[in-house]
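Hi F.,

I've been meaning to write this up properly since the lab meeting, where we talked about keeping a consistent format for the predictions we share between groups. The idea is simple: the sequence comes first, exactly as it goes in, then the structure tokens exactly as they come out, then a line or two of notes. No screenshots and no reformatting. I'm using this chain as the first example so we have something concrete to point to.
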Amino acid sequence: MLGRARASQSISVVETIINVVVPPLAVALGVMGFFVLKALSKPVPREVPEQPLPVVQTAGVVKHSGGLELTTDGLVVPYREIQLAVEVDGRIVEKTPQCEAGTFVTKGTLLLRVDKTDYEIEVNRLREQLRQAEAALAEWTVDVQNTQKLLEIAQQQLEIAKRDYQRAERLFGNNAIPQAEFDNARKSLLLAEQEVVNLENQLRTKQASKDRLEAVRDQAAVQLQKAQIDLDRTEIRAPSDGVVVSDLVEENTYLRKGTTVLTFEDTSCAQVNCQLTMRQVAWLWAMLEGSSVDAKLATGEAYKVPKLPVTVEYELDGRVFYWEGTLDGYEGLGVDDRTRMVPCRILVPNPTAVKAKVVAGTGTEASASTRQPPALVRGMYVSVRIHVNPKMTVLRVPQQALQPGNVVGRVRDGKLRMVAVEFAQMIPEGALIIAPPEVLREGDSVAVSPTPFVENNPLAFSDEGLPVEVQSVL
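Output, unedited:
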């Protein structure tokens, strides 16, 4: 029994040792075997498949030679709307048929006539007054001439009296004549001198009165001129070619000076008011002459716009009618605080010189020349095209080449690089852009096919560029 118990105890100890030592030892041997096998193994070379280059379709960059067009909308307004007022007091004695609202009249056409009886009387009175003033001046001229003649005679008599006195003085000194005869000679000399002095005084007095007589004449002439102007103002005539917008008086109405009698619109020229964005105005600023801000301010150029040609278009029933005009200047000064745009003024010197063109595909070709507005008139909503010929080089690329953010994919030497450009205008032939020569120039190629592969690819935005396979389509 004792021997069997000792044998059982020895087996338990062996099992315990096996359970504790064998598992970690097996793990350690496995790890050592893994590293030994890894050190002895050689890597098997793997063949990496070659990635194909992205395919890009390109088109050429060309220089645009037709200039730019700044487009906006406009409203035709009166060039001049004149409030005609009567300039003299009086009663309206004639209202001509031309003085009716809506009537077109030429410059100088008689519209209204004020009673001119009192003004004709005043003109006649002042004419007579002027004639009298001129007659008085003529009498003065004759009187002065007569006095000058008398003065000449008196001066001759004075010379004779002087010689007689000198002779008498010599004889009296030699006791050849008595005292009384000598005194008579002296008296004659004094009387002759007195006559000369009196005539000289009269002549100076007459000459001094000339200014007064001339002033009276000139005053009468001015009064006559004023009366003649008042007489002419009794007739109210059209100040230019235009249309009577409204007539406010009738015949036999008595009016005071300054009373408005009609509203007149000058149609010798038409005005179109439009608004340009600051970006469009920047093109105008780029065309201003002047080497410095001080030079522009000195000449007022800083507050002007260049006189550029403009086409004003009006569309009606599929037809476009257009007039030629000129950008005249700002309508006021500064930016409209409501629209944040710059108001400008366009003048059309010949509102009746209308031309027409047919919009293709509208089916109105047959009547294009028979139904058209006779003139550019107030209230028309029109399209405005300002023709700008910038001094910098403008490039043209296909529309699909211009990507969001004003970016194009330039391709040089088989490498694609995304570059930023300045967008100018979209025309049927493509997009007009501006860029420095080192960024894009005439003869370069630009990508016209989609380029999704440039996203998250820094090479496409780096100076090195992204290699691509080029397929020229244009």
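Notes:
Helices lie at 2-40, 117-173, 179-232, 278-286, 293-299.
The longest strand covers residues 68-85.

If this format works for you, I'll send the rest the same way.

G.
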